[in-house]
Structures are given as C-alpha cells and as structure tokens.
Amino acid sequence: MTSLLSRFGATSLTARVALGVTFLLTFGGIIVSIAAFAYGREAARSAYDRLLVGAANDIASAITVVDGNPVLELPHSAFELLALAPDDRIGYRIVGPNGQTLTGYDDIALPAGLSGYSDVFFDGAFFGEAARYVVVSRRFAERTWSGTIRVAVGQTLQARNAMAVDITRKALYVLAASGLAMMLLAVLVVRAVFNPLKRIAGGLAERDPHDLTPLDTDVPRETAVMIQALNAFMGRLDRQMNSMRHLISDTAHQLRTPVAALRAQADLFSDEEDPERKDRIVERIQTRSASLGRLLDQMLSQALVIHRGDSVRREKIDLRDVVLDVFEEGDHAVLRPDIAVVPQLADQPVYVLADTTSLQEAVKNLLSNALKYGRAPVRIGATTENGVASIWVEDVGGGPDPEILSALGTRFNQSGLSRQNSSGLGLAIAHAVARSFEGQLVLDTHGDRTFRAALCFPEIKAEAA
C-alpha cells in the first residue's frame, strides 16, 4: 500500500487529472447508464401502453347489443396496432357484467376490485411469460340489455425491453463520445495551465546561484500563491545569507584590532625583563582577553537571534515567564553581586507572538548593560498598556552615549572595544530581536535619574492566541 501511494505521488499532474476525470466519468457513466435504462423502460412502457389502450378502445367500440346480447366482431385495426411489436404474443379477454368471459383467454386474470371506468394497467403473465395488460370498461344501457363490459388486452414485453436497451445503448454512445472529448480537453487544459510553471522552472534554472531577487509575479492568480511563497522563502534565505556574510565581516572587522593588540602585548612580554612590567603586561593581556571573550559572546548571540527570527516558528509567550527565567538564571548575581535586581510583573498575562530564546538573549543583554553602566536600583519587568506588551529593564542612570544611540541598528556599531564598552552591541541585539517580531526597542531617558530600555510588541488576547 505504501509503495502504491509513493508511486502515485511521483506521477505527473496531467496523469492525476486524467485519472481523476476517468474516475468521474466512470462513476458518472454508471449513474447515467442506470438513469438512461430507467428512462428507456419508462419511455417504452409509455409508448406501448398507448398502443394497448388504442387496441382495447377499438375492441370496446366494436361491441354491440343484438337481440339483448352483446356481440363482438374483433376489428382489424386493433391487431394492426398490436402488430407494431411483431415478436410479442398478444392476449385479450372480454368480461361481462357477471364476470363471465364473453370471449378471449380465461387464463388472463383481471385484478380484483375493479371499479369505475378509467383505464387500469397491470402486470401479469401470458402462458408463463411476463406480460403487460390494460383494462378498458364500457357501460351499456340498452332497453334490452344493460351492464358494464370490461376489455383486457395485453402483450409480452420483448419489444418494450428491446426499446429500453436501445435507448440506453444510444445514451451510452453519446456518453462515451462526450467523455473521450472531455478527457482530451482536460489534458489540453492541464497542459496549458501548467505552462506558467514551466516558465518559472526555466527562469529558476537560468538564474545565477547567488541571485535571490524575487521572481516575476505576473502569473495566473492560482500560481501567484506559489510564487509569493517562493519569494518569501528566498527572502528569508537571502536574509540568512546576508546575516552570515555580515557576521563574518563583522567578526573580521571587530577582532582585527584586539587580536593585534594581544599579539603586541605578547611580543612585549617576551622582550621585557623587568618583573613589574611583565606583571602589568599580563594584567593588560587578561583584561583584553576578557573583553574579547565578551565581544565574541555578544556577536554569537546576535547571530543567534537574527537566525531564529527568520527560522523559528513563533509561539504564544507570556513575557512574565521570560522575566522570571532570566531572573532565576542568576547571571546578574555573578556579574554584579553588589546590585540587587528586582522583578516587577503585571497581574495579568502579557501574551505576544515571539521566540522565547531570542527574547531571553535580548533581555540578558539589556540587563547586562544596566548592571555594567547603570546604577542601582535595577528593575526588570513585563507590563501591558493600551494594547502594547513590553518587557523592560530599568536603572537609575543616564543611559548610553548619544553616538551609540545614533548608530543603533547599523553595522559596526560595536565600537569601543578598546574602551571595553559593549553597550552598543547589547542594544543592537535587542533591536534585532524587536524587529524580528514586529516590535521596537524603546529607550526612555528622564534626565540623570532613570533610564528604561523596553522591547515593545503588539499584545495578543488570551482567547485569540
């Protein structure tokens, strides 16, 4: 069964459409055949029933009363009508008022409870063969004789069945011809419909491997959905490749100076003979190594959040949980054990659509900046106001330098490595996370008293999430 499904999945769309049309025509053909046969039977019955009624009326009209007795001379016209079904056997019976057979076959049994003068049809047998009958009544009110005479005329069903089969056969001929035409038309239409896909495939095959610009969307509406999805995918891939190129470029740009400085200090250490100067050189090497390690951590963190912003599925997240996760990890206690960090959470859930890991990285960087360059008290919290959900870090301080804020969101804004100032890179990470999830990084400064860095996102309701 699995191999059959796999083979079917590898078939062409044209073959699938042809198979589907064949199935529909087969199923529809069965239904139409049944309907055609039923219609043929009804048409044949109606046609030959009229012949029976005409023959019976001819016979009934030929009955006369002579000397107080009904007399019948069978008319030739009645048998000429019935002769239109030459292969069928004919039977008739004329019944008097008391149920006695005046003439005809006694084996023809009339249905019980006949009353009135309307024509009555019934199915019966004629010497063991299925037959169809009609009963016609005629009322006599003569001076010498009165009563009702019933004339029953019937014939076997060979002509009826042959007519029903003929109607069905002709209907099937028309169905087969129209079905074949529909299949050919379906194949042609499918091939025409798939021409845009061939154009798209040709355009992709001719493209340079590094060309990730959007494809032309001047295609039919049904195909445009696929083109839009493909363009979105290529856009994400382009952003990923750009992020990789920028990461490599930024790494080379940022590490060139500190690595050269470390090499220079190492050369000085190897040539220095004064123990005190050697100790100072070792201290500078340790300081620069620690600064270089922090820079590498932040650059890898930035690459992580940029990658996850495009590749990780967004989920409903309560920002209060992010705050608690960052607080409970306790990195702040290792970085600055002398500064207390106070969590401040809203009473109700603060839901957003984002990625937990990316938000944690952003908040950790904001908290690290606050601990390094701000002043106590430091607060971290999640609140919502006017449909905007925020996760923020607040300290008592003036915030980053104006040149760092002006370069926010641009490349190579991680300046000041030699001065061991990486607040710009921490804000760049937070800015990248906010932008990845349709949010923004909001920096509020109030003189020299309070500075708040907040990631703001559109809030989603709990029932809509």
Structure description:
The protein is α+β, with helices and mostly antiparallel strands. The chain has three domains: 15-165, Beta-Lactamase; 208-310; 312-465, Heat Shock Protein 90 (2-Layer Sandwich). It has twelve helices and 14 strands. It has helices spanning 2-9, 13-61, 76-82, 158-193, 195-206, 221-271, 275-311, 319-329, 331-335, 356-373, 402-406, 423-436, and strands at residues 63-66, 69-72, 90-95, 101-104, 120-126, 129-141, 146-156, 315-318, 341-345, 351-354, 378-385, 388-395, 440-446, 450-458. The strands form four sheets. Strands 4-3-7-6-5 form a five-stranded antiparallel sheet. It has a five-stranded mixed sheet with strand order 9-11-12-14-13. A two-stranded antiparallel sheet has the order 1-2. The longest helix has 51 residues, at 221-271. The two termini are 39 Å apart. Residues 411-421 have low confidence and may be disordered.
